[in-house]
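Practice problem: predict the structure.
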Amino acid sequence: MNPVEINNQLRSKAFGLASVVSGMLAIGALFSAEWLMTTVASAFCLLLFINSKVNKVSKEQSGAHWLSHIVVGFLALITLASLVHYPQTAEQWCYLLPLVAFFIYRVQTATFITASYSIALAFALIGFYEGPEKVQIFFIYLLALAMTLAFVYLREIKENQLKPLRRTDNLTLASMRDYLLQDLDKEVQRAEREGTDLAVLALGIDDESLSLVSQDKFDMFLHQLGRLLHENLRLFDSYYRFEDADFVIVLPHTDSKEATKKAAQLRLRSRQKLSSKDTTVTISIGIATLNVGDSAETLIGNARKALKVARGKGVNQTLGYLDISNEDTGIAG
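Answer:
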């Protein structure tokens, strides 16, 4: 099971557990003859249950699935409506929204949603809510928000601490950039010692294609691209995630002609794999081969320069560093 599927399974279990709790709340409200709460809790339970099933069967990076948007929207709408028109119904559910938002969305998006909701909540409490626990709701919400932010902060610290210890990127299964120089330096020394060829490819999704990919689908595309590289490279080849949408591929025992052939194969298969009926996704590749006096740094730099010039020529391009002309140098600059 790959990291994306593991992440989806964890989401599925979390949504499933939440749906059970909501179902118990609906049953309790039913026995208390609180019909409005019964309806609201039952609807929320159904939404959570559907999200649980969708994440369980999903094979792709779900990120914030549109059903997840509905869960957050439902929670915000119900709590604000309870404060304004239906007191003593679901206003206490407001404590859950920050936790749910940071569970579903990226930190930046969740921060924006939580900040907007907090402002709306404050206005609703001050301007409309007449219940005696107005102050209590507000300060408990602030406490729940503070605890959520503390957990998120600790999670980010842990992630940053563990990142240098990881050999591979969880999303793409590519090796981490931190290992590129030392690994490539060993390959350069081996090629010089044995008199064999060595090629480096700088591969990146074209900017035009990136503009067509929504943020929610970005991780899915990267995961698919990483899996494609894993399936189409030899066992002794290696690939590294260099930037968000750029990779560096090391091809031992590969000359310029073979590297160009491999680049064309990767471009074709990437277009077939990543494109959909509505969106055509392309990649461009820069090629550098080992010459006398080259080092790991110069090989990477040459391949990256060739990629930049290739992108300047359009989309779906392959260009070797030795094929860059003086006119192309102006494009690279």
